[in-house]
């Protein structure tokens, strides 16, 4: 019976449309209302179906990557692609040291994160994709209007960043089967360079500005959701070569057959 069960599970995972282990399928939303938006996107932005890694990339994952791609090892990466603190918490270029294999990798630049994802046949998620995924809690696809849920996220943001990081996947999965979008680390997004925060509602423009690096300033549609404002302000303050002790990433990829 155990052998038959294993065959059934294997077939289910290999069935057309089934997500691979480690990846979650998100159905998308034809009119996702983002907290930060340009005036002509207030009625919603289309988020196409896509896949997202269930957990952030770990030290173990990133070690395998830099072994296979030595140009991204500490001490070899070009300064234009990563600042001097790149992977500084590792004991050596190929030795994470006290950073356990299951902890999320941090101290990585946008360039390094994007290179990792490309090596997996994937990409960094866009800001709107990440925010769409991050709107979910354990039972709801969109929990953003729940004050208790928002307060829970803000309590994590108030924690000192000097605390040791937990392992990836240690928090309960959300309704999509995704872990750690809140409460573990900040995460790079593909279009981080375009998230230029402004408190002035006049600093707005076309919806396509969400697609281009350094294109304009976002203004808040819902100033009650401070967590989104904090995330966006943090990302907008960084250059692509910057690294921090609590910033990592996860990858996304398009779904084959998704409506363009």
Could you explain the architecture of this structure?
This protein has one domain (2-254): paralog of FGE (formylglycine-generating enzyme). The chain is globular. It has helices spanning 2-14, 59-68, 110-119, 127-134, 147-157, 226-236, and strands at 23-26, 29-32, 36-37, 45-47, 50-53, 186-187, 196-197, 217-220, 247-248, 252-254. The chain is built from six helices and ten strands. Residues 1-18 and 197-223 have low confidence and may be disordered. The longest helix has 13 residues, at 2-14. With 260 residues, it is an alpha/beta fold. It has a three-stranded antiparallel beta sheet with strand order 1-5-10, with no helix packed on it. A three-stranded mixed beta sheet has the order 3-8-7, with helices on one face.
> What is the CATH first-level class name?
Alpha Beta
Query: How many domains would you count in the coordinates?
Result: 1
The portion of residues assigned to helices is 10-25%
Indicate the multimeric state: single chain
Beta-sheet strand percentage? 5-15%
Report the CATH architecture.
Alpha-Beta Complex
Quickly give the structural class.
alpha/beta
Number of strands: 10
**Unreliable parts:** 1-18, 197-223
* CATH fold call: paralog of FGE (formylglycine-generating enzyme)
Give the secondary structure arrangement, pairings included.
Elements: H1 2-14, E1 23-26, E2 29-32, E3 36-37, E4 45-47, E5 50-53, H2 59-68, H3 110-119, H4 127-134, H5 147-157, E6 186-187, E7 196-197, E8 217-220, H6 226-236, E9 247-248, E10 252-254
């Amino acid at each position: 019976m155990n052998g038959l069960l294993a065959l059934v599970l294997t077939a289910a995972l290999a069935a057309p449309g089934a997500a691979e282990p480690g990846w979650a399928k998100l159905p998308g939303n034809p009119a996702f209302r983002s907290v930060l938006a340009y005036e002509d996107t207030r009625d919603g932005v289309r988020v196409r179906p896509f896949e997202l890694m269930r957990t952030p990339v770990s030290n173990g994952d990133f070690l395998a990557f830099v072994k296979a791609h030595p140009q991204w090892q500490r001490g070899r990466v070009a300064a234009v692609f990563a600042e001097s603190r790149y992977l500084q918490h590792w004991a050596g270029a190929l030795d994470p040291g006290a950073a356990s294999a299951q902890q999320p990798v941090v101290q990585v630049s946008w360039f390094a994160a994007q290179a990792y994802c490309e090596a997996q046949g994937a990409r960094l998620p866009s800001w709107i994709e990440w925010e769409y995924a991050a709107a979910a809690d354990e039972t709801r696809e969109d929990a953003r209007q729940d004050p208790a849920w928002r307060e829970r996220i803000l309590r994590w943001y108030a924690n000192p960043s000097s605390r040791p990081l937990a392992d990836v996947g240690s928090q309960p999965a959300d309704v999509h089967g995704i872990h750690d979008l809140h409460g573990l680390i900040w995460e790079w997004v593909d279009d981080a360079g375009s998230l230029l925060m402004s408190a002035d509602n006049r600093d707005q423009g076309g919806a396509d500005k969400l697609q281009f690096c350094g294109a304009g300033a976002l203004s808040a549609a819902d100033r009650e959701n401070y967590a989104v404002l904090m995330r966006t302000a943090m990302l907008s303050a960084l250059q692509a070569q910057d690294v921090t002790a609590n910033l990592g990433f996860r990858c996304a990829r398009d779904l084959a057959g998704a409506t363009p």
